[in-house]
Amino acid sequence: MKKTCNILAAIFCSLMLFYGCSDTMRLPEGGDSSSGTGINRDKNKFVRISPDWGFDTLGLTTPLDVYPSRDGRLYIADSSEHRIRVIRPSGESEGGIYDTLSGLPVSPAAVCLDNRFNVYFTDRGGRIYVWPQFSAMTGIQGIVTSREYGNGDILKPLEGLASGLDPVPHSETVDTGATAMIDSLLSPHVFYDPRSVSNREGVTDPVSGEEISGDPVYAIVRKSLIALAPAAENALHIYAMDAVNHQILKIRLIPTVLVKLENGQLVWHYEGVLESFVATEGTGAGTVSRPTGMATDDAGNIYYSQTGDFFSVHKLMNGSYSSAFLVGEDDIMDIGEFGYARDVSVASDGNIFVLDTLDRDVKMYSPAGEFLKSVAVREEWVRITDSSYVADSLVVQDTLVLQQYPDLLKQPQALTVYNEVLYTIDNGNRRILRFTRVDDVIVENPDREE
């Protein structure tokens, strides 16, 4: 392992030898690891949750990506099964409406959800697909064809958006007979196509009035979108990572159709249009070279892993997209820090988790990029006894050393963190490993008498 975290919980016992005799003293019971005596408390302790989730039980074959929704469900992109498998926090597979994500016309390799409960996925090609889960679960009553606005005008919904006027509540006209269009909206369908007219020739955003230029060159070049991530809450865009062109795309959500749901709520459906490239090919901080995974935090900052020169994990600040980590200052930017950074995830507290397939562990970093420890490894406490002379007296010391063995993971593909639980897709062993954070684990004096 690149960083074998040998945490010295210095639990000392002084055995003073006088006249060839020894007297064993009980280890002290107070203190903590910082004082060098007593009990060690690891605030970043993770323990393995049993049982493991087997692929066969979950109906998984080749899972390549995983993303947690706000309700704790895991959305797993299974390439061989042509589906997005949805797993409850209890470990049971979802059926019913979620079966819509079974038998997809593509082999999904990446998946994410936005705060509107839109499920996005891609198959390592150039297009992104979407399943509007909220609309599908609620049901669409009809398509809104017109609304009355504050000045008394009757306008189409897109015209109303462009006008900037406020619509009159409950003034919409709804076409309930457009069944073919409704069915197409409720099914998984193309969200972003670089060859579409909007992406080749440009489009006007009816929300902001901004002109988004088309990109006819990018439309026709070979590309491979391997990772997706949502933007900050209420932001109208998502991010995609292109492994062929070494770029991160910012894709704008352009409203296309306004629908009225069965519960009376009005919801927009969107088309994806390339707005800009927030990171491009290079070898410095904030550039892209052979990318492998991507994630965002609640503030909309972007994190991505890669295997090219020279730095394996980067963070881009939301808005400016400048690099947040500094070379030579932050552990996470050290050259040689990772064997093969396959994937990255960010916890709600800002801690960063990087899946390293070569080192066969998950490396945990603080929000500032400071290395904290290795996770998803087997741990054993080893007691080491040694002696030394202090002031002409022989002192024997017992020390507990935490040894970590990276033998749990085999060819892992993806990870995610939700509600202080780390989920790791362990493809080589055909299972999902779970680890939960426990901040009050105590390693006690092994000789303490009850």
Which secondary structure elements does this structure contain, and how are they paired or packed?
Blueprint: E1 8-9, E2 16-18, E3 21-23, E4 40-41, E5 46-54, H1 55-58, E6 63-68, E7 74-78, E8 83-87, E9 110-113, E10 118-122, E11 128-132, H2 133-138, E12 140-148, E13 154-155, H3 157-163, E14 173-175, H4 179-186, E15 189-192, H5 197-201, E16 203-204, E17 211-212, H6 216-220, E18 225-230, E19 237-242, E20 247-261, E21 266-279, E22 291-296, E23 302-306, E24 313-316, E25 341-346, E26 352-356, E27 361-365, E28 371-375, E29 378-390, E30 393-405, E31 412-418, E32 421-426, E33 431-437, E34 442-443
Antiparallel strand pairs: 1-30, 2-3, 4-34, 5-33, 6-7, 7-8, 9-10, 10-11, 11-15, 12-13, 12-14, 12-20, 16-17, 18-19, 19-20, 20-21, 22-23, 23-24, 25-26, 26-27, 27-28, 29-30, 31-32, 32-33
